[in-house]
Request: fold
Amino acid sequence: MIGSQEQATKDSALNYTEVFTTTEEMPSFPGGDPGLFKFIYDNIKYPELAKKNNIQGKVIVRFCVTDKGTVDHVAIVRGVDPSLDEEAIRVVKMLPLWKPGKQGGKPVNVWYSAPIIFSLKDNPYPKSSDKKDLSCKIYPNPAHDHINIRIEDQDIKVRFQIINAGGQIVATGQLNESIEQIDISELTNGIYILNLTTAENLRSSAQQFIKN
Reply:
């Protein structure tokens, strides 16, 4: 699968006439965003040099999901260290075929962004069965003036960050209730990542939403 994607990417890389930021139907990874981040963290290899020098942080990767469902034009929009940046790019280039985004009922090329967190605390890349994900839902998505966040777990405090496609943090705050509403009316239209982390940093979630 990976070999066929790489070949298709090479064949289609120069055929772009337009790459969309938002579309009527966004690209989807098998298993959705949870499946995407599971694939990333199951395949990431923490660089030994970064471990030795205690280098940690969040790398924001931007890439194009082509009209064929392949991943192309992978780039770092917010890096941490060359070793972590290179590893993030390597894993993203491994991604299997996506379901392409559509505009007017036709497959199109679409920009997509993903945050990849490198952390040396408490075994940052445990086996899938050991991972502690924060269960939550975002709606509506796409959204216009606000998004609602529903935390499935009760009685926990959660910090949030909203990151734009350029890797900039455009909003931060804390959620104290299981269901809260965040005003996004001042954000420009586009794709954003919502990062949620519990106060003790033991559970987290990263989900993409569209502002239109």
Summary: The CA atoms of residues 5 and 70 lie 6 Å apart.
